[in-house]
């Protein structure tokens, strides 16, 4: 497009001339996807849906970045693997902070539509589980416990169970640097050597730190989520059929990279 804007000639190179902000971002579709279950309308349900949809969009982005980071490790591009993990960290911080927005909803206002949500629950978030699997916490029992999984969603989870995790890719990096990775003892020694000579192993050390950061931020989200749940529903069971906060508390000790945490005790 060529034209004048504030007296200046502009050429945006808009070949074909039909793309607009709204058509590029497919806003007609995006903004038509917030369908409330409550009747009469509960004012806060739009916020509830919006928050979850934003989470899922960021989950999609996180999976995009983690997959590329894993592949960068497998192809010896450690700087790229670390660069992408750093982006994931900033998204993860944003996801934890978003809980603040949802907490502007009171339990009474949530109660206006909560009963309509059952048996749906965040437990059924396929992308959330994909992130866990890809990060290193593969647990096939979750796939079995999923209710109402579409064929496509099942295939995506099976694929994540099959493909290498970030941790496995990191082991390939250690192997490539000449370390034995056959058992936990060897691995501990390798990590100790990397930590003890950061001049020689700068890239591997930074990568290990970036993985640990990802692990820590995931743990922060779990902790933030369970406290919000206690604030919203106390000790009530969850809509997904679990004990609620009790179940979520049992997930708080989950760590993707226990060996990176163990290492701390011997540094
Ligand atoms: C009012 C706000 C929320 C409440 C009361 C709540 C409550 C719960 C409860 C009780 C569970 C356990 C499963 C069940 O039986 O239902 C759960 C799981 C889960 N929720 Fe939420 N949740 C809230 C908001 C969110 C948000 C905004 C997300 C973001 C996507 C989310 C994601 C998840 C995930 C991923 C799980 C599964 C966790 C795991 O298995 O480790 N929740 N939630
Ligand atoms: N499990 C929540 C309801 C809930 O938060 C939820 C319901 C449907 C879809 C996503 C949800 N978010 C997280 O669990 C509850 O028991 O109140």
Rg calculated over all Cα atoms: 22 Å
Order of helices and strands: EEHHHHHHHHHHHHHH
**Which percent range describes the beta-strand content?**
under 5%
Task: List bound small molecules.
Answer: protoporphyrin IX containing FE, N'-Formylkynurenine
* DSSP, total strands: 2
Average pLDDT across residues?
95
How would you write the strand order of the largest sheet?
1-2
Query: What is the count of helical runs?
Result: 14
List low-confidence stretches. Answer: none
Main beta-sheet annotation: 2 strands, antiparallel
Helical content class: 55-70%
Protein name: Tryptophan 2,3-dioxygenase
Binding site for heme: 225
Cofactor: heme
Function: Heme-dependent dioxygenase that catalyzes the oxidative cleavage of the L-tryptophan (L-Trp) pyrrole ring and converts L-tryptophan to N-formyl-L-kynurenine. Catalyzes the oxidative cleavage of the indole moiety.
Explain the overall architecture:
The chain is mainly α. It is 62% helix and 3% strand. The protein contains 14 helices and 2 strands. The chain has a two-stranded antiparallel ribbon with strand order 1-2. Strand 1 (2-5) and strand 2 form a beta hairpin. The longest helix is centred in the last third of the chain and has 32 residues, at 202-233. The mean pLDDT is 95. Protoporphyrin IX containing FE binds at residues 51-52, 55, 102, 110, 121-123, 125, 128, 225, 228-229, 232-233, 238-242, 244, 247-248, 251.
């Amino acid at each position: 497009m060529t034209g004048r804007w504030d007296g200046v000639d502009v050429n945006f190179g808009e070949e074909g001339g039909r793309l607009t902000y709204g058509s590029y971002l497919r806003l007609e579709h995006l903004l038509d996807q917030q369908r409330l279950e409550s009747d009469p309308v509960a004012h806060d349900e739009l916020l509830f849906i919006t928050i979850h949809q934003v989470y899922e969009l960021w989950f999609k982005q996180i999976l995009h970045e983690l997959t590329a980071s894993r592949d960068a490790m497998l192809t010896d591009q450690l700087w790229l693997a670390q660069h992408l993990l750093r982006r994931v960290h900033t998204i993860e911080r944003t996801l934890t902070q978003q809980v603040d927005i949802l907490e502007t909803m009171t339990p009474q206002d949530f109660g206006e539509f909560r009963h309509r949500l059952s048996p749906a629950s965040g437990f059924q978030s396929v992308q959330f589980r994909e992130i866990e699997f890809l990060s290193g916490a593969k647990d096939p029992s979750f796939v079995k416990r999923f209710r109402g999984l579409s064929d496509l969603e099942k295939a995506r989870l099976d694929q994540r169970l099959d493909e290498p995790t970030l941790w496995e890719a990191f082991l390939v990096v250690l192997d490539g640097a000449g370390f034995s990775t056959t058992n936990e003892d060897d691995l501990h020694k390798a990590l100790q050597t990397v930590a003890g000579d950061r001049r020689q192993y700068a890239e591997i050390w930074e990568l290990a730190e970036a993985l640990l950061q990802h692990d820590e931020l995931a743990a922060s989200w779990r902790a933030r989520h369970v406290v919000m749940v206690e604030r919203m529903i106390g000790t009530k069971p969850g809509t997904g059929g679990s004990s609620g906060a009790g179940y979520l508390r049992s997930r708080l000790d989950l760590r993707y990279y226990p060996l990176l945490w163990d290492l701390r005790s011997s540094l």
